[in-house]
Structure to design on (646 residues):
């Protein structure tokens, strides 16, 4: 049979070229179709990477993002959250050198302390450099070491050098519900090792910036040790995967159900300075992603019809070709070739031609360079499978023909 | 003479969704090696149906058809057509994509005979049917009807079977070619011991046969036995 197939392919050039051409075009069109979906998906992924969704913990009516009180429970909930990244939190304290009583605090409490979990959490003016002692770097803010960084001018004034264990008395702020009255309460005395400096010598800005930087967890531990309620004054983070926004919001709602956080709604909320709402800046992303998702959804809806179309094309073309070869089939049968074997022969012939068409389609798509080779191969494989399925059905129907009736019809 | 085919009360019914038609009714006859049989009858009388049963393309609805004593239902009928019985058609039915020689080689290639040997034997068979060597490499469409029928006969004998079934083999030929084909079929029966069964309308073809059956409304009758050959009629 196989020598006959090869001769048939070779000698029926127009028929062979037609099948190859149809399959080549089909493979190219399918690659264009999937390429378009792929392009939209890439755009969506790029959008997710380039349009980060920032979230900020606010007070319930959304009027304050800093200077609020975000509870320890909220912080723990956010620390454990899986759908967020780059969690930043900070708080402000007051400190003074040495040991002094609360009555003497006005004279001694002269250091503004910024407590942060990342150096980026503190906003420093331009020309301000943060310099670390050898062996230390910015990762210290993520830890809980009893260390600190001081302003260079402060270091020089006090005569401190790196490695000095400096005793501080630390105070914290407590506001009333309306944030009108503030109390400054003593946290306690602590020795912090000086491991870096904030070099303000080139700064020309008059804006205030902290005299001292301390790792967040160090202070949090101190509060817990003293069993004093700890709060952060500003908390922000990014949605880990903007494409999984619903999962993110669900996670935030779960934290909300624990009485920690609610997605920010704004209007109608009662003023408080408690950090118990979340402002999610997802408007731009949702608008842009929505358009892309709609385009992908519409195109994907054609996936099944496209598959059916390929099958129908395979069936119709094979059926028409088979109709033209009914007598050939009957002749095979009359010469003693079994029906399955005769159908197999025709099927193999189509297989070779369809494969050749798909290879041409694949190569064209690869040369166009718009898609990954693996993706192109998958698409061509699907086109090949769909077409051959149609061919198989057409040829199985051909096998039902009665051979002698066809040969004796003339 | 040895009976190679025997039909015992063979009936066949064409069944469609709406009706049943009895195409053959209790046909009983036998066919021996070395003889030419003609089955005559009007169109629709059932002779081609009987030929399709003899070719193993279908099986009787009732009765039994024996091939060398074996019920055809129990035979592998594809193998039977491949190795033992060949059909020659009115419209020749050569493979249009194969050359004359390749057409004759085809059944041998199905029998897995090596290409070189198949080619040699094909040339031998083509010589036997007296086809000019210059036509061996031609495509079937490029040769005459008589030549095509000779190629079909060569292909039939190439399968190596002893049963030659012919459906109106001279129906598309002029009288000169008709004579050549009839002589060829007779020669195969009488010299090479084939059993040749010819379905025909043609009286000349029937006259050349050793035995003539008539078919009418599915009923087979003996028109002429071998012994009844008229005086003056010579065995071809």
């Amino acid at each position: 049979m196989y020598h006959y197939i090869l001769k048939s392919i070779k000698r029926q050039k127009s028929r062979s070229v037609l099948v190859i051409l149809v399959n080549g075009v089909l493979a190219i069109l399918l690659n264009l179709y999937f390429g378009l979906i792929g392009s939209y998906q890439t755009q969506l992924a790029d959008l997710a990477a380039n349009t980060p969704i920032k979230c900020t913990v606010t007070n319930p009516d959304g009027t304050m993002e800093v200077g609020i009180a975000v509870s320890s429970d909220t912080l723990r909930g956010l620390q454990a959250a899986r759908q967020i990244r780059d969690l930043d939190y900070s708080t402000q304290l007051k400190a003074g050198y040495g040991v002094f009583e609360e009555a003497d605090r006005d004279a001694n409490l002269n250091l503004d302390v910024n407590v942060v979990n990342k150096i980026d959490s503190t906003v420093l003016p331009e020309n301000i450099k943060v310099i670390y002692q050898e062996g230390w770097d910015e990762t210290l803010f993520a830890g809980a070491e009893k260390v600190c960084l001081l302003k260079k001018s402060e270091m020089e004034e006090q005569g401190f050098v790196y490695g000095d264990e400096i005793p501080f008395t630390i105070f914290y702020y407590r506001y009333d519900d309306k944030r009108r009255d503030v109390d400054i309460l003593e946290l306690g005395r602590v020795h912090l090792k000086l491991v870096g400096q904030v070099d303000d010598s080139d700064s020309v800005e008059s804006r205030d910036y902290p005299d001292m930087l301390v790792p967040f967890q160090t202070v949090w531990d101190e509060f817990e040790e003293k069993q004093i309620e700890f709060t952060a004054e500003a908390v922000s983070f990014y949605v880990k995967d903007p494409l999984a926004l619903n999962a993110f919001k669900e996670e935030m709602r779960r934290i909300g159900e624990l009485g920690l956080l609610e997605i920010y709604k704004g209007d109608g909320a009662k003023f408080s300075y408690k950090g118990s709402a979340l402002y999610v800046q997802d408007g731009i992303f949702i608008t842009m992603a929505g358009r892309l998702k709609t385009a992908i959804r519409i195109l994907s809806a054609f996936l099944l019809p496209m598959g059916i179309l390929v099958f129908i094309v395979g069936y119709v073309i094979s059926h028409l070709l088979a109709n033209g070869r009914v007598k050939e089939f009957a002749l095979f049968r009359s010469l003693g070739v079994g029906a399955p074997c005769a159908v197999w022969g025709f099927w193999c012939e189509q297989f070779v031609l369809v494969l050749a068409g798909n290879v041409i389609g694949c190569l064209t798509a690869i040369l166009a360079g718009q898609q990954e080779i693996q993706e192109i191969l998958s698409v061509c494989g699907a086109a090949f499978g769909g077409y051959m399925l149609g061919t198989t059905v057409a040829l199985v129907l051909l096998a039902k023909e009665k051979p002698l009736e066809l040969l004796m019809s003339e | 003479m040895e009976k190679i085919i025997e039909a015992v009360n063979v009936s066949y019914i064409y069944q469609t969704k709406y009706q049943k038609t009895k195409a053959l009714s209790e046909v009983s006859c036998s066919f021996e090696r070395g003889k030419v049989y003609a089955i005559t009858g009007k169109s629709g009388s059932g002779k081609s149906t009987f030929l399709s049963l003899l070719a193993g393309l279908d099986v009787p609805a009732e009765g039994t058809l024996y091939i060398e004593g074996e019920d055809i239902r129990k035979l592998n009928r594809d193998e039977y057509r491949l190795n033992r019985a060949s059909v020659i058609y009115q419209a020749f039915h050569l493979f249009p994509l194969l050359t004359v020689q390749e057409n004759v080689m085809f059944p041998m290639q199905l029998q897995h005979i090596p290409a070189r040997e198949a080619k040699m034997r094909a040339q031998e068979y083509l010589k036997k049917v007296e086809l000019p060597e210059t036509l061996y490499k031609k495509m079937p469409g490029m040769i005459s009807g008589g030549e095509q029928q000779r190629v079909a006969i060569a292909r039939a004998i190439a399968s190596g079977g002893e049963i030659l079934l012919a459906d109106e083999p001279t129906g598309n030929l002029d009288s000169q070619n008709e004579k050549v084909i009839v002589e060829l079929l007779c020669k195969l029966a009488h010299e090479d011991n084939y059993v040749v069964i010819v379905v025909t309308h043609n009286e000349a073809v029937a006259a050349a046969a050793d035995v003539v059956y008539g078919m009418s409304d599915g009923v087979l009758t003996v028109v002429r036995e071998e012994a009844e050959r008229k005086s003056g009629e010579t065995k071809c």
